[in-house]
């Protein structure tokens, strides 16, 4: 098999894992202040992700690193072409990671409240930016012959021109609502007591909002209509499962939907990785962007030995922390 | 400023900031693992308390390190996309393998460690923190290999069609002779960073306030300070040895860099090393300097009479080799960062060594709050008179001590990166050719302001939380005085509620 095609698949896999795993992290970050009526309840909600969020986020590191290694041109054009949105994404992730990690390091309720708010806002911002960026990337960028998006009309115009498009706005809506839904189903699976009950009550509204956003996305982007139908059917199944108390199934269905959407976004244009809206000849494709055989062979061997191990020990981490989290005080 | 200058400034700010936290993470991970191993083997409660303390410092440091490290991974594509295209085939695999191999280990196992105190069997729990420590080392090695390529490009060929670098051998890339010396040098510098922090925290709590000597945790704080002192002093020795080794390799692969470090304009046999030098701006030779004869020749080539090439001669050689242009880096920056790196690092090591001498054999620092000694006979002999002023000096230096190795690391990197200019990849690719062509200076300025604000807030928050962690009581007083107070520390530790573990 062509190594470049294999690596395109692995890049997509990294994005799927990142957007599924961090998807519920973002959702939990947004929902914790709403679902937790007091500090112990908010703490319980966040304890469902505290041991694993760091490992989840590394899938973004992997996605970007692997893109750099296997398709340097894709990496360079994607990041420089969406410069300010990408910087905003990084700053949001910075605030989010630090808020989550620092909140428990000081025994002070005012401090925790501040961290929780920072976490909720940055989680929402990051989910929105990611959704917008993916929406924009799916539509292509104004890539010139040199692979760069020229700043015609100034920086602000370029950034706004990219981010205030229907594709970006709908993408942002899909990003936030899917994170909320993932977070709600995950929390109802991983907590007990009042947090679990309230999380379950969020499943149906979040699913409804996501269905709406997904239908808009299908209508405006030229995605096949059956994708919208599948999404709505899966959302319905998820809500039903949650109603019946089958929380594991509800979460699984939502995860499958998220994965499906991400795969569809990336595979739809293949072998074009990043379409040029100016001239199809300037589009970046799997073949044109691929690194040398030596580089691809090197990372293939590395991945062959490393990635299975990563999947095993990450699964182990979830297994170790599999118990439902309770907001009751720790028995001493 | 234009896009190029702003992008360079941004790269410098973002990278230097990230590197405040990296060495600390590397050393604190190993120190946490060492302390937990000590607890595991001896069962002494104070080792466990110290493990928690250092582990929490590691957690907050690692958090800032990981979010700023993400920026590092993105920024080659953000503002340096032409560099990413040129160099992606060589650099990409290193970055990808670092992420897959090391970053996943660190992130996943640090979570398992911190939240796994009461979930994992003790041996496996101990293994998790060692895995984190090893992960940080792998991370450092692989990423330094990428940097070493920029200092001494090897294992590549230039694609005749695209003019870009193409990877020839990843194995060769990993054993770049520059990296073989740069890695131990970097790790020694990292070790000193953590050591100095622990020394400062421990000594301050053990001797720096009224009643500290009688405090039940005095012994633990003393242990922490002595550990920090040993790490600081020994890594000082290691830094010096590896630095000398690295200097000699750099002299052969990048003679211009070492000539700039000394401000040596004309090639010279038996070249001296100047401690300080003052020159007229824009002119070559300084009009005042304090020199150590022959030292530069020894440092550069290991031979007091060896010829060290000067900037002017190298410039002439490079013009012949690479075409017209200015190949001399910014000499004052190279000259001063090189000296400040050595000076701040050695000062920290000196404080560590003096502290160790003062506190040897159970003695304590003689401070305003401390008694003469900690239950040990007073020191005698001719040097005993020096104990009081030396203790004073050590105590006074403590607030600044953790900053010294951080400064040394920073000066070292500024030297390494700016004295390679105008090259991004030495002899292959110039900095001015790497910047993203589509960007406007307004965009870079906006992002620079964004990084400035967010990074500023993170620094303040990190400092406050780290102070809070370092200022807390080590262990809660025994809840029930009737509890068996014998030497059953181990069993008690095993039964101890994990109230101080995840305080979520």
Structural write-up:
The complex is a heterodimer of chains A (332) and B (504). With 332 residues, chain A is mostly helical. In chain A, 77% of the residues lie in helices and 2% in strands. Chain A is built from 13 helices and two strands; from the N terminus they run αααααααααααββαα. In chain A, strands 1-2 form a two-stranded antiparallel ribbon. Chain A starts with a helix and ends in a 12-residue tail after the last helix. By secondary structure, chain B is mostly helical. Chain B has one domain (3-251, 331-494). In chain B, 66% of the residues lie in helices and 5% in strands. Chain B has 15 helices and eight strands. In chain B, the strands form four sheets. In chain B, strands 1-2 form a two-stranded antiparallel ribbon. The interface between A and B is large, with 82 and 80 residues. Chain A: It is a multi-pass membrane protein. Chain A: This is Cytochrome d ubiquinol oxidase subunit II. Chain A: Its main location: membrane. Chain A: GO terms for molecular function: electron transfer activity; metal ion binding; oxidoreductase activity, acting on diphenols and related substances as donors, oxygen as acceptor. Chain A: The chain crosses the membrane at residues 6-36, 82-99, 119-143, 163-189, 201-219, 225-242, 249-267, 299-321.
State the shape of chain B. Answer: globular
Average pLDDT metric of chain A: 88
* Unreliably modeled segments of chain A: none
State the largest interface.
A-B, 82 and 80 residues
Number of helices of chain A: 13
Low-confidence stretches of chain B: 478-503
Question: In summary, what is this structure?
Answer:
Chain A is mainly α and 332 residues long. Chain A has 13 helices and two strands, in the order αααααααααααββαα.
């Amino acid at each position: 098999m062509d190594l470049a095609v294999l690596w395109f698949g692995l890049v997509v896999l990294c994005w799927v894992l990142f957007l599924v795993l961090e998807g519920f992290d973002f959702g939990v970050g947004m929902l914790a202040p709403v679902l937790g009526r007091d500090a112990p309840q908010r703490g319980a909600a966040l304890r469902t992700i505290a041991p694993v969020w760091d490992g989840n986020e590394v899938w973004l590191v992997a996605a970007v690193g692997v893109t750099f290694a296997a398709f340097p041109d894709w990496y360079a054009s994607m990041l420089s072409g969406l410069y300010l949105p990408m910087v905003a994404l990084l700053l949001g992730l910075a605030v989010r990671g630090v808020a989550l990690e620092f909140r428990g390091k000081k025994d002070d309720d005012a401090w925790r409240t501040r961290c929780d708010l920072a976490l909720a806002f940055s989680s929402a911002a990051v989910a929105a930016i990611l959704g917008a960026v993916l929406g924009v990337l799916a539509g292509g960028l104004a890539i010139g012959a040199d692979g760069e998006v020229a700043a015609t009309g100034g920086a602000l115009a370029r950034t706004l021109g990219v981010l205030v498009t229907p594709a970006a706005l709908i993408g942002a809506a899909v990003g936030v609502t899917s994170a909320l839904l993932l977070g709600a189903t995950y929390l109802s699976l991983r907590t007990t007591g009042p947090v679990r009950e309230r999380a379950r009550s969020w499943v149906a509204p979040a699913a409804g909002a996501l269905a709406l956003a997904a239908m808009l996305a299908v209508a405006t982007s030229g995605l096949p209509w059956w994708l919208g139908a599948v999404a709505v059917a899966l959302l319905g199944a998820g809500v039903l499962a949650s109603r019946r108390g089958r929380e594991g199934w509800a979460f699984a269905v939502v995860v499958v939907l998220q994965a499906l959407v991400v795969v569809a976004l990336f595979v739809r244009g293949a072998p074009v990785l990043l379409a040029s809206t100016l001239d199809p000849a300037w589009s970046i494709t799997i073949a044109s962007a691929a690194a040398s055989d030596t580089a691809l062979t090197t990372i293939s061997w590395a991945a062959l030995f490393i990635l299975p191990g990563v999947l095993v020990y990450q699964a182990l981490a979830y297994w170790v922390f599999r118990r439902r989290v309770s907001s009751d005080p720790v028995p001493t | 400023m234009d896009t190029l200058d702003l992008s360079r400034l941004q790269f410098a700010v973002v990278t230097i900031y990230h590197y405040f936290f990296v060495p600390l993470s590397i050393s604190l991970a190993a120190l946490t693992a060492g302390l937990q191993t000590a607890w595991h083997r001896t069962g002494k409660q104070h080792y466990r308390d110290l493990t928690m303390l250092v582990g929490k410092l590691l957690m907050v440091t690692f958090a800032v390190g990981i979010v700023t490290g993400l920026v590092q991974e993105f920024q080659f594509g953000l503002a340096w996309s032409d560099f990413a295209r040129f160099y992606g085939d060589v650099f990409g695999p290193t970055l990808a393998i670092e992420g897959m191999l090391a970053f996943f280990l660190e992130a996943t196992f640090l979570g398992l460690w911190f939240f796994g105190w009461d979930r994992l069997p003790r041996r496996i729990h101990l293994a998790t923190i060692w895995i984190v420590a090893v992960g940080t080392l792998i991370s450092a090695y692989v990423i330094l290999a990428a940097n070493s390529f920029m200092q001494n490009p090897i294992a590549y060929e230039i694609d005749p069609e695209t003019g870009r670098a193409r990877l020839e051998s990843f194995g060769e890339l990993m054993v770049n002779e520059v990296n073989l010396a740069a890695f131990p040098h970097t790790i020694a510098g990292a070790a000193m960073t953590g050591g100095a922090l622990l020394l400062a925290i421990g000594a301050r709590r053990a001797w720096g306030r009224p009643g500290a000597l009688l405090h039940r945790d005095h012994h633990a704080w003393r242990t922490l300070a002595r550990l920090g002192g040993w790490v600081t002093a020994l890594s000082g020795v290691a830094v010096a040895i590896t630095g000398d080794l690295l200097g000699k390799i750099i002299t052969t692969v990048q003679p211009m860099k070492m000539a700039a470090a000394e401000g040596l304009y004309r090639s010279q046999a038996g070249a001296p090393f100047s401690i300080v030098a003052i020159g007229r701006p824009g002119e070559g030779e300084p009009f005042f300097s304090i020199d150590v004869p022959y030292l530069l020749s020894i440092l550069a080539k290991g031979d007091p009479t060896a010829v060290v090439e000067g900037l002017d001669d190298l410039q002439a050689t490079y013009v012949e080799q690479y075409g017209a242009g200015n190949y001399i880096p910014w000499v004052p920056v190279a000259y001063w960062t090189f000296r400040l790196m050595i000076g701040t690092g050695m000062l920290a090591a000196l404080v560590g060594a003096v502290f160790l001498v003062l506190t040897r054999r159970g003695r304590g620092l003689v401070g305003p709050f401390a008694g003469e000694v900690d239950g040990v006979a007073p020191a005698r002999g001719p040097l005993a008179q020096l104990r009081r002023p030396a203790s004073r000096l050590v105590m006074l230096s403590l607030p600044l001590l953790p900053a010294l190795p951080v400064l040394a690391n920073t000066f070292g990197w500024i030297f390494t990166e700016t004295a390679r200019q105008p090259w991004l990849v030495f002899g292959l690719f110039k900095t001015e050719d790497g910047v993203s062509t589509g960007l406007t200076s307004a965009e870079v300025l906006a992002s620079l302001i964004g990084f400035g604000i967010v990074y500023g807030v993170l620094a303040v928050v990190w400092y406050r939380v780290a102070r809070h962690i370092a200022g807390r009581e080590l262990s809660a007083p025994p809840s029930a005085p009737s509890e068996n107070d014998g030497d059953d520390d181990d069993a008690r530790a095993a039964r101890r509620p994990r109230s101080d573990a995840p305080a979520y």
